[in-house]
Structure formats: C-alpha cells, structure tokens
C-alpha cells in the first residue's frame, strides 16, 4: 500500500483542531478535492507537490491556503475544522449609543485637527505685523480662516489682508 494512501477510519472519531495532524487534515482535503494523493492535494491548494513533505515534517498546516480553497469551494470551515461540534454564530449587540459616541468622538477629533491646521496657517502671519501676542487678533484670524471658502478669495490671501488691517494703527486725533 502506498504511504500516501490512508485507510478510511472505521469509527467516526473527531480530532480537536489543536490535535489535527497534517495527515488527518490532508485526508479530509482528499475527500473534498477528490484527489488520490497528498501531492495532488498540494497542487489543488495551489502549492508545490513537494510542500506536503515539508508540512508533514514540521507538523505545520498551511491554514491560509486551506481556508482560501475551502471558501472558494464553498465548504463550511466549521464542518472541516470542527466536525462533531455544535458551533454557534457569535452574538453581539449593536448599540446605537456606542455608534453615536464614536461618531461624536470622531467629529471632535476632526475639528481639533482642523483647528490645528488653521492655527498653523494663521499664527505665522501675525508675527510680521507685530500681532503675535494679541489673542483677540488670533481669534479674529481663526474666525476668518473658518468662515472663508476659497471660492471668492483664497484663505491665505484673506488672512494676509486681515493681518495687515489689524496691524494698522488708527490715526489719533490731535
């Protein structure tokens, strides 16, 4: 009898996944693929026929290839990897408040990033006009940044004009 041919099991004894050997796994794959040898199963998985010997020696299964092929053939992973076990789909509760909390947090994060971008663009414009320590000017510049759309005037140009206007000292009446 060929080494690669294995006798069909007379009893329906199931092997837990952690105890699944390469030979047992390939016996199951032979049933699904309708291939006669382990080398043919390796080819069916899209691998080199000699890879089976390496897997057997290292006692490591090529799970990625096996799962990909089983899904391609529309074979239940539960049936293949856990025969004899009654498995259930995981239960999870979709909680709308969690989604809302996430959405609010995400929105706040986006606003902070947008504020930092605005601050990064406006702050350098204040220094040339001697307005770097004036919080009122900074607040006004940030308002201009957020209220300006680039349709009529570019943000950078609007900010420059406002900074220039803020730096002009009003004429004092004598």
UniProtKB/TrEMBL annotation:
GO terms for MF: DNA binding
Xref: InterPro entries: Lambda_DNA-bd_dom_sf
Protein name as it appears in the record: Bacteriophage CI repressor
């Amino acid at each position: 009898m060929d080494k690669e041919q294995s006798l069909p099991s007379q009893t329906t004894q199931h092997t837990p996944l952690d105890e699944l050997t390469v030979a047992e796994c390939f016996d199951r794959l032979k049933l699904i693929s309708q291939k006669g040898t382990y080398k043919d199963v390796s080819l069916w998985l899209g691998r080199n026929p000699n890879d089976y010997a390496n897997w057997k020696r290292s006692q490591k299964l090529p799970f990625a290839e096996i799962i990909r092929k089983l899904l391609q053939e529309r074979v239940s992973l539960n049936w293949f990897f856990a025969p004899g076990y009654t498995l259930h789909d995981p239960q999870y509760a979709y909680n709308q408040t969690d989604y809302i909390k996430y959405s609010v947090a995400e929105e706040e994060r986006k606003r902070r990033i947008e504020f930092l971008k605005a601050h990064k663009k406006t702050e350098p414009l204040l220094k040339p006009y001697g307005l770097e320590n004036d919080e009122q000017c900074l607040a006004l510049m940030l308002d201009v940044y957020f209220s300006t759309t680039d349709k009529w005037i570019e943000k950078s140009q609007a900010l420059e004009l406002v900074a220039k206007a803020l730096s002009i000292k009003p004429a004092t009446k004598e």
